[in-house]
């Protein structure tokens, strides 16, 4: 069932849907969405995070902090989803890459990392969720699309400074996607509600082996999390030793290596502030 042919406002989507899910990357936009919704009186049923097993350490620190915050406020529910192997063991993206002496697929222009660890993991969870079945008006997974009578609300943290992402909205079966920060005109790190409700800006969410990292990200990893930094250095070196294509990526950062990316950043005159991500004081 497709509920909307054109993008509804957050308030319209909230009023017309049953099961309300926040899909959180657990970065700065996620915390703004949580804080703004809490202050405005909107409580999602679940806040869902799909874990690649390879996120920046500060993301895991923030999740632990957020779980305690939700328990204290008696507000919503944090759900962390993992991908598992055939024996039921949690998988980590970086483990899989290391075994193959390669680098993440994003370095080759593919989105398979996100699809496998994010999209597929979330789809499996909701397709087996009784509350999702109830919302869709079905009694089991695998029911035909034309038998659905309702949609789940999926809340996504796209802020007001990212209109190019919002215009990609499209009608979907099973889901209605809404962007509260965009509709409330809250731009990047612009929410005063974060501090008022007792939360903090954790920093950008990302895998620490992501080919899309900036020089600034790499310096932050090097200076604050040396074991993870050394791990991606070895990852890149093993890829370079074992690559068979000369026209492929030079290193982890596609056309750049880790060292060349850091060098380019340091030479442009910008100063790196190790506390810019505003980590929780308890984690520092």
Brief descriptors of the model:
12 helices; alpha/beta; 284 residues; five-stranded parallel β-sheet; 5 strands; Rossmann fold; single chain; 2 domains; 41% helix
Strand order of the largest sheet: 3-2-1-4-5
Q: What fraction strand?
A: 5-15%
- CATH level-3 fold name of the largest domain: Rossmann fold
CATH class of the largest domain: Alpha Beta
Q: Could you name the ranges where pLDDT drops below 50 across 5 or more consecutive residues?
A: 270-284
Ends: how far apart? 47 Å
What's the CATH superfamily of the largest domain, by name?
A: HUPs
Q: What is the percent of helical residues?
A: 40-55%
Largest sheet: 5 strands, parallel
CATH architecture title of the largest domain:
3-Layer(aba) Sandwich
Average pLDDT over all residues? 90
């Amino acid at each position: 069932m497709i509920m909307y042919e054109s993008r509804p406002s957050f308030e319209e989507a909230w009023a017309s849907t049953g099961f309300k899910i926040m899909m959180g990357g657990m970065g700065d936009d996620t915390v703004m969405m949580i804080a703004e919704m809490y202050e405005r009186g909107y409580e999602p049923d679940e806040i869902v995070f799909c874990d690649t097993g390879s996120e920046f350490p500060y993301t895991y620190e923030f999740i632990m902090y957020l779980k305690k915050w939700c328990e204290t406020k008696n507000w919503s529910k944090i759900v962390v989803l993992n991908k598992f192997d055939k024996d039921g063991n949690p998988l980590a993206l970086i483990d899989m890459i290391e075994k193959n002496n390669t680098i993440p697929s994003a370095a080759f222009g593919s989105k398979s990392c996100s699809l496998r660890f994010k999209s597929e993991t979330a789809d499996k969870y909701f397709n087996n969720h009784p509350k999702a079945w109830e919302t869709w008006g079905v009694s089991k997974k695998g029911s035909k699309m034309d038998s659905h009578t309702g949609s789940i609300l999926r809340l996504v943290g796209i802020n007001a400074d990212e209109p190019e992402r919002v215009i990609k909205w499209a009608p979907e079966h099973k889901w209605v996607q809404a962007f509260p920060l965009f509709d409330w005109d809250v731009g990047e790190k612009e929410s005063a509600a974060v501090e008022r409700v007792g939360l903090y800006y954790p920093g950008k969410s990302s895998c620490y082996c992501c080919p899309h990292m900036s020089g600034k990200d790499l310096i932050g990893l090097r200076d604050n999390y040396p074991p993870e930094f050394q791990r991606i250095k070895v990852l890149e070196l093993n890829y370079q030793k074992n690559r068979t294509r000369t026209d492929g990526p030079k290193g982890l950062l596609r056309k750049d290596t880790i060292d060349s990316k850091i060098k380019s950043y340091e030479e442009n005159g910008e100063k790196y502030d190790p506390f810019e991500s505003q980590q929780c004081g308890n984690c520092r």
